[in-house]
């Protein structure tokens, strides 16, 4: 599918700080594209350049096949975005907010069309409720409805699940997936919640200190044949003796904090069955080849205790 975003050699310098350094990437139409990096990696600076909120020091940005620097108005008319938290009028209803954003976009929508927009994000039943009564997750979904009011082809979301509870995160995740899979929208989503990007994204880009360190299909980058499985049983010594006498021995990894095996993800159920047949009680089998592990191997976040704050 044709590229919706094409970035080449993008750089941004603030005095003596190189925020973005020669960044190049491509986003295909209709996909959810995850944008990852720890704090200070250059994610927000990149997104602001994509939206012409700041000007690049060097490089080029093409969106929907047009050079952003020369076709700003035309390009941005087909882009919807939320940077951090959506700006909503808390003393107006959801319907009034959406109507106002439509008018600001130069669009006149009927009440039926506005309600359809709220239905799309699961808020039709709260159309007449004031935004001040909404949870943070509901506000985020209303913000996405406002970003969609002019029916853009590309949606850019900066940390859309930040500060949400588990239900709010799930609601926004399902909405993003629906926009891509059901509506054919391209969604460029920045997030520090690595597990969410792993579930949502078709492709991803990881940057560190303003530079690209990895880009590609999530399924290719997270090779299932290289899954690390952390094993916890009632008797590690007995478990190790059993594993060493079987084909599983070839996958045993050196680890001072417990038993870890390297295998294909499909082999995990068979390992569990073999252990149970030996009368070994399995307390947990945890696949560790996740986006978090991959992220930590590539970025300076491995210097920090908690990758999820990165």
TrEMBL record:
One GO MF term attached to the UniProt entry: ATP binding
Transport listed as a keyword: yes
Xref: PROSITE patterns: ABC_TRANSPORTER_1 (PS00211), ABC_TRANSPORTER_2 (PS50893)
Top-level lineage group: Bacteria
Swiss-Prot/TrEMBL keywords: ATP-binding, Nucleotide-binding, Transport
PANTHER family, per database record: ABC TRANSPORTER, ATP-BINDING PROTEIN
Keyword Hydrolase listed: no
Residue ranges constituting the ABC transporter domain according to the UniProt record: 5-234
Family note: Belongs to the ABC transporter superfamily.
Record-linked SUPFAM superfamilies: P-loop containing nucleoside triphosphate hydrolases
Protein name: ABC transporter ATP-binding protein
Pfam families for this protein: ABC_tran (PF00005)
UniProt source species: Flavisolibacter ginsenosidimutans
């Amino acid at each position: 599918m044709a590229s919706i975003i094409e970035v080449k050699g993008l750089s941004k310098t603030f005095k003596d700080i190189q925020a973005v350094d020669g960044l190049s990437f491509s986003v295909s139409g209709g996909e959810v594209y995850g944008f990852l990096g720890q704090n200070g990696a250059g994610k927000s600076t990149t997104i602001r350049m994509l939206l012409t909120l700041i000007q690049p020091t060097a490089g080029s940005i093409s969106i929907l096949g047009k050079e952003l620097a020369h076709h700003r108005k035309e390009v941005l008319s087909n882009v919807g975005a939320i940077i951090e938290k959506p700006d909503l009028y808390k003393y107006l209803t959801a319907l009034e907010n959406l109507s106002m954003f439509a008018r600001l976009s130069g669009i006149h929508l009927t009440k039926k069309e506005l309600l359809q927009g709220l239905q799309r994000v699961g808020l039709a039943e709260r159309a007449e409720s004031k935004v001040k009564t909404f949870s943070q997750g509901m506000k985020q979904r209303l913000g996405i409805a406002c970003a969609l009011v002019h029916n853009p082809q590309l949606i850019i979301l900066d940390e859309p699940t930040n500060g949400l509870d588990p239900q709010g995160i799930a609601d926004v995740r399902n909405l993003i997936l629906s926009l891509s899979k059901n509506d054919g929208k391209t969604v460029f989503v920045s997030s520090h919640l690595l597990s969410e990007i792993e579930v949502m994204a078709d492709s991803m880009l990881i940057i560190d200190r303003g530079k690209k360190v990895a880009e590609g299909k999530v399924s290719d980058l997270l090779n299932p044949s290289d899954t690390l499985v952390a094993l916890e049983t009632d008797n590690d010594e007995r478990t190790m003796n059993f594993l060493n006498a079987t084909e599983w021995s070839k996958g045993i990894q050196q680890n001072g904090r417990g038993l870890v095996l390297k295998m294909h993800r499909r082999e995990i159920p068979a390992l569990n069955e073999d252990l149970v047949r030996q009368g070994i009680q399995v307390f947990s089998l945890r696949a560790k080849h996740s986006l978090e592990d991959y992220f930590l191997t590539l970025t300076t976040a491995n210097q920090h205790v908690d990758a999820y704050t990165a």
